[in-house]
Write a structure and sequence with these properties.
Blueprint (H helix, E strand, L loop, with lengths): L15 H18 L13 E6 L5 H12 L3 E6 L11 H10 L4 E6 L4 H6 L5 E7 L5 H15 L6 E5 L6 H12 L3 E5 L15 E3 L2 H4 L5 E4 L15 H8 L3 H5 L5 E3 L12 H4 L6 H19 L7
Parallel strand pairs: 1-2, 1-3, 3-4, 5-6, 5-8, 6-7, 8-9
The protein binds phosphoric acid mono(formamide)ester.
Length: 308
């Protein structure tokens, strides 16, 4: 059992069946997380390299934990302290890692398409851990896993993705994945942060949060990406919060809403601290599920090679 492709570059190119396979496989790995000894020999003898050109807490740590729980050897490369600082290009870095015996490269970068580029010459497995504003496939997979775990299904549920859709790789991967899995997907945010042709992906567009929110089962609140903003995308953090912040008053109007956030959160900008810590929120469960989902992906990319 496994995936046909050698890499996970995005959800745009995965079928509904492949997404279901990953989510179903992650259920068994979540069980491993509950054991006293959280270790299975699936990737024994394999080397996973985490190559992160951008900061990360959740994704990098959970890929490291997932790899270790599968018995792989793990190397973390923070580019701030690597030869990248001496001018080494991405291709030479990857060729160096190949010579050192990397079997997997997990890459995060601000360059859209960098994982796709290295997959053309790296013989091992490439996992996209976020490439610019393009995709963050394992985040969307763990979001879908969490929806299924909490609500029993994905098909037919209404999911609102709220906030900075324009700069969000999490939004793009979620839209590709959720639409394929049969969810009804909406996006909501300031007009300047909604991509022009987003409706072509099969999602509804809302500009008024108060009007949209009561019609949804789930809201996935995105971080306002202050580092990727150009001037004038919205007036101020205060104004953003007033119109698009997920507040207790807004939650009162839809008491059964499942509240998700990929993290890291800007409390008081896109979400209030009360909502983030409310019973509706599953933000910490998302983080835990990220380990199980990443174990499933690492395992399934081995295809026929893996131990059953
Ligand atoms: N959700 C997410 O990608 O978080 P990190 O930036 O901490 O990895």
């Amino acid at each position: 059992m496994g995936l046909k492709q050698k890499d996970l570059l995005g959800l745009k190119d995965l079928s509904r069946e492949e997404i279901s396979l990953i989510l179903d496989t992650a259920v068994s790995f979540k069980e491993v997380l509950g054991r006293d000894i959280k270790k299975v020999p699936v990737l024994r003898g394999k080397t996973v390299v985490n190559l992160f050109y951008e900061p990360s807490t959740r994704t990098r740590t959970s890929f490291e934990l997932a790899s270790k729980m599968l018995s792989a050897d793990v190397i973390n490369i923070a580019t701030q302290t690597s030869a990248v600082q001496k001018g080494e290009c991405l291709k030479d870095t990857v060729l160096t890692l190949t010579s050192l015996g990397a079997d997997y490269i997990v890459i995060r970068t601000s360059m859209c398409g960098a994982p796709h580029f290295i997959s053309t010459f790296f013989q091992g497995h490439v996992l996209n851990a976020g490439d610019g504003i393009n995709e963050h496939p394992t985040q969307a997979l763990l979001d879908m896993y969490t929806i299924k775990e909490k609500l029993g299904k994905i098909e037919g549920l209404k999911v609102l993705i709220l906030g900075d859709i324009l700069h969000s790789r999490v939004a793009r991967s979620n839209m590709f994945g959720l639409v394929k899995m049969g969810a009804e997907v909406g996006v909501c945010g300031p007009p300047t942060l909604i991509p022009k042709d987003v409706a072509k992906l099969g999602v509804k567009v809302h500009l008024d949060l108060d009007e949209a929110l009561p019609n949804y089962d789930i809201v996935n609140v995105l971080r306002v990406q202050l580092e990727r903003q150009r001037q004038g995308m919205f007036a101020s953090a205060h104004e953003y919060y007033e119109h698009y912040g997920l507040t207790t008053q807004r939650l009162e109007k839809n008491k059964h809403l499942l509240v998700m956030h990929p993290g890291p959160m800007n409390r008081g900008v896109e979400i209030s601290p009360d909502v983030a810590e409310s019973e509706n929120a599953v933000i910490e469960t998302q983080v835990t599920n990220g380990v199980a989902v990443r174990m499933a992906v690492l395992y399934l990319l081995l295809g026929g090679e893996s131990h059953e």
